[in-house]
Amino acid sequence: MNLLAFAARRLAGAAVLLVLLSAAVFAATAVLPGDAVSAVAGVDASEAQRAEVRAGLGLDRPAAERYADWAAGAVRGDLGNGFVGERPVTDVLATRLPNSLLLAGLTLAVTAPLAALLGLWTGLRGGGADRVVSTSAQILAAVPEFVVAALLVAVLAVWLEVLPRVSVIPLGGTPLDAPHALVLPVLTLSAVGLAVATRLLRASVADAAATPYCEAARLNGVRGVRLAVRHILPNAAGPAVQALTLTTGALVGSAVVVENVFDYPGIGRELQLAVAARDVPMVQGIATALVAVMLVVLLLGDICARLLGAREGDDR
Amino acid sequence: MSRQIDRRAFLRRGAAGAAALAVGPGLLAACSTDGTDSARKPGSGSSHRSGGTLRAAFVGGGASETLDFFNGPSALDLVRARAWHGTLGNLDPSGPDGVRYGVLKGIDISDDLSAYTLHVRPGVRFTDGSELTSADILHSLSGLAAKSKLPVYRLAAANFDLARARAEGDLKVVLPTLRPIADGRLILCQGNFLVVKDGTRDFREGMPSCGPFRLTEFAAGQGSAFERYDDHYGHVPHLDGLELRSIADSTARAGALTGGEIDFAHDLSPVTARTLADDAKAELAPTKSPYLVGLSFQLNMSAKPFDDPRVREAFKLAVDREAMVKTVFYGNAEIGNDLPSIGFPDYADGIPQRAHDPERARELLQEAGADGMKVRLTTGPETPGMVETATLFVEDLKKIGVRASVRELPAGQLYADFPAYSALPLAGSYQMPIPALSTYQMNTAGGSPSAFGWKKSGTDALVARARAESDQARAKKLGTRAQRTRWEEGNQVLPVFKPNLNARAKGVDGIPDDLFEQFPGFSRASLA
């Protein structure tokens, strides 16, 4: 099957999945205890005021009806307005989602080549270097993000004073207007991602290096970089690519800790705020957009893996 | 600690609203009438550079931040509006009526307490050159505030018939009361009644207004920028410009302050504030009374054994208030006396401070047959220090033989699920700074759900009489009697009042001069 057909099939599947997941997100907001009334009307509103606000927000209608309304709007590109502050959800996505994509993209750009390098080196070399790198990677993968962030801040911002402590971005600008503010968030996220990807790659490199065809290549005089890049990497990268795409996709919406610590204007914190305020349209819009991003990233990952030589028959 | 909730500021603001005082700055209007202006010039003796742009950081509300402060629940929404719009007035204990007027010259009260006449200060101009008249005030009050869902504005709606307000000529607005009240100035001049131009429906950059600054840029969840309005009535700001940023995390706000990226950080957590103590570039500037937030525990009288006054008293005697102030707030807080609204004129300061007496508490529990009782205290991280204080309270309760435990809900949930909240046997909550009697009427009287089973028509009537009493000494006496009942039999344990732990760069001055410190104003601020 050619690549185009494969992508088309997967896209169609993703669309169906998106609809199902958006319904699941909606159901989840419906079972969360509480609603947005307290966020809008205040804690001490009387019963009558609560009922009025609830009706004003449309929360007195059945959940299925509200979902149908939302879905009808969403198909036309209208994700509604948030309950709190009444800002259009698409506005919020338009300003915050690109920042999160940028953060995830930069993290991937740092992580992928470094992980390939370290994975190949340790997987092929073994010995003392392998043990040192593997153990460090294991430790790094186990350290919570906020600890990594705090350490980086302590060293780079407080002690050496080479980087700003928080990402103060010029008003109306994007993170690209203050590139130095991106360094700490990207480093923090990369540290954990790098550790995991290195471990994965090391294992599959070691496997690939032990295969008969590698042995044959070696016997034919292929060595060093050429052996690693031409013969081992393509065969070893499959699982690591999948793992990287998964972490990168997840980064888009779940870098909340890093967004908070460095005050980075990403979408994760908006989602967290919306959940706390029980702002259903905002939660629904952001979560659905994140699901869509994740599905696209997974598709790209599959295409990459396929290009890297997944078997023909494997066309799930 | 990031506490969006802080965001939850909405509560704060709400409440505050209620309580609060207002926007002070602009308001300084009063100067012309009460002559306090010269007295308020910042920092006599020190020299202040005129100009510069002050950068301040707040928790913010993310994408839900809005320019429409009548519908924006985050604290920053109100701070931004205070910089941008004129105000009716702010609470000012040193002012003649207990307030400092803004776009008003004064407020007269009819003898029968049935109507308030607001006198517009002549010569106040909007940024488009037009003069502020009664129509603008009327629109802001009965067009916008009356329709607001925020608790702040509900306090006014509970006391005044906003819909029936009317203009008399260009310089007078008459506002009927719903029942006779003598303390209405404290409600109208709490700082959150801001005035926009007649006909305003949408709030956007570039719309004319009459506050100390004009808005030049706004990005929700990120920040806003202002420049000085040179034709501002009464008092033109020292600053050339102002930048208000949203930085949700307390540590990040402190980091931006010590890193020189901002000049003022709002509402830090007690621990973060402590880390600034030795910093050469920054200093703490906690808000002063009455701008203190009460941390409280509500005992649900509809649930056994809290229907027994002896059990309620035991819980009040069990708290080691000193320890809370020292351990949670490192001394940066005041001890509470189980009554809200410390520092307001109607607060009953004549009632003796409740002692810490675990022995007596244990005896009371035994008398009530409640020794060894089991109870779970539910709370959430809605404002810094809340969960820590609850944890200490539970330890105090264990010492008098109560099998107590604490349950911390995720941020936002405590109040989001309101029916569950008001049914809790024991809930940890917080109280915004609002005058004592009006807040009682709004939140506690008539068996309101947030009263947790307190229903005493006698006390309700006493509060109503106190508020309808023009003679201040008699009003105070009646108000104190009502609060004494709450102190003796009430179901609220309020051990600590905490300030907003703000911090500023060394040399920044004049922010408290703008009053309504909870939502700081910058019209009198200056940089070093």
From TrEMBL, chain A:
Residues 1-27 form the signal peptide. InterPro entries: BPD_transp_1_N, MetI-like, MetI-like_sf. Keywords: Cell membrane, Membrane, Signal, Transmembrane, Transmembrane helix, Transport. It is a multi-pass membrane protein. It is found in: Cell membrane. Pfam families: BPD_transp_1 (PF00528), BPD_transp_1_N (PF19300). Residues 97-301 form the ABC transmembrane type-1 domain. Gene3D superfamilies: MetI-like. The chain crosses the membrane at residues 101-124, 136-160, 180-201, 240-262, 282-301. Belongs to the binding-protein-dependent transport system permease family. This is ABC transporter permease. It comes from Streptomyces marokkonensis. The lineage of its organism: Bacteria, Bacillati, Actinomycetota, Actinomycetes, Kitasatosporales.
UniProtKB/TrEMBL annotation, chain B:
This is ABC transporter substrate-binding protein. Pfam families: SBP_bac_5. PROSITE patterns: PROKAR_LIPOPROTEIN (PS51257), TAT (PS51318). Keywords: Signal. The keyword Cell wall biogenesis/degradation does not apply. InterPro entries: Peptide/Ni-bd, SBP_5, SBP_5_dom, TAT_signal. Residues 103-423 form the Solute-binding protein family domain. Residues 33-52 are annotated as: Disordered. Residues 1-29 form the signal peptide. SUPFAM superfamilies: Periplasmic binding protein-like II.
